[in-house]
Amino acid sequence: MLTRNVQSYRLTPTHILIIKVVIHAISLLFVALLVYNTLNGGFGADPIKGIEHFTGKAGLNTLILTLLLSPLAKRYKQGGLIRLRRLLGLYTFFWVVLHLGAYLALDLNFDWALLGSEIIQRPYLAIGAVSWIILLLLALTSPKSAQRRLGKSWQKLHNWVYLALLLSPIHYYWSVKSGLVEPTFYLFICLFLLYCRKQKLTTWLAKKNIVSPARPISKTFHR
Q: What percent of the chain has pLDDT over 90?
């Protein structure tokens, strides 16, 4: 009943604009919360880790919301939701830039050589770096002008967001020393979002020769 009611309702451009305004407002609210907690000791005994976790989780939450749009749009036949992906994707990159910036500035004192060494020596940082680079490329190619220039390659490039969705919660899981319930919960959410796209992912991976497409049984036996 709920699904039918939602499907019968159509999001107009005005509705999409209002939702975008809400997204901006909520994002700015979390930025204000970050600043407030930083200036007023809201991150506890280890404020550096607090800032890093806050920005990292904000980026992960926004990435999850970004990739939740397509299943919702398909389920409830609300194609207008797709128009929100770019905005949420850019906010995802905004938060991961702050996340890396906090680590580089507060933990490493802008020592780029040390950053490279840490990424090589610590697997969870290497995973985070791969995810960060993917999100960087997606942000740089998000404008419509880039989509026109890249043509079919644009979609192939943006399919790598699924790898970022997988690696990000693994990075979070490995980065904490205790309290694994929350990162495990995030990991299952991300796996569920990937499961919702299993057919698309199987096709994509087959094209990359990562998995082999299923062969007809008759042909297999005749080989």
A: 75
- Residue 63 to residue 58: CA distance in whole angstroms: 9
* Encoded tokens for 174: 């490995």
CA distance 223 to 219: 6
Round to whole Å and give the CA distance between 106 and 99.
11
Nearest CA to 61 out of 195, 197, 196, 182 is that of 182
Nearest alpha carbon to residue 122 among 50, 68, 171: 171
Tokens of 5: 């009611």
How far apart, in whole angstroms, are the C-alpha atoms of residue 74 and residue 12?
A: 16
Q: Residue 222 carries which side chain, given as an amino acid letter?
A: H
Residue 81 to residue 104: CA distance in whole angstroms: 35
DSSP 143: S
pTM metric for this prediction: 0.87
Residue 19: CB atoms within 10 A of its CB come to: 16
CA 141, chain centre distance (Å): 15
pLDDT tens for each residue of 119-130: 999 999 999 999
Q: What is the pLDDT of residue 15?
A: 93
Tokens encoding 203? 């096709």
In the prediction, which pLDDT does 223 show? 40
Q: Which residue is associated with the tokens 């080989």?
A: 223
User: What residues contact residue 73 under an 8 Å CB cut-off, 6+ apart?
Assistant: 79, 80, 81, 82
Asked whether 127 and 170 are in contact (CB, 8 A), the reply is yes
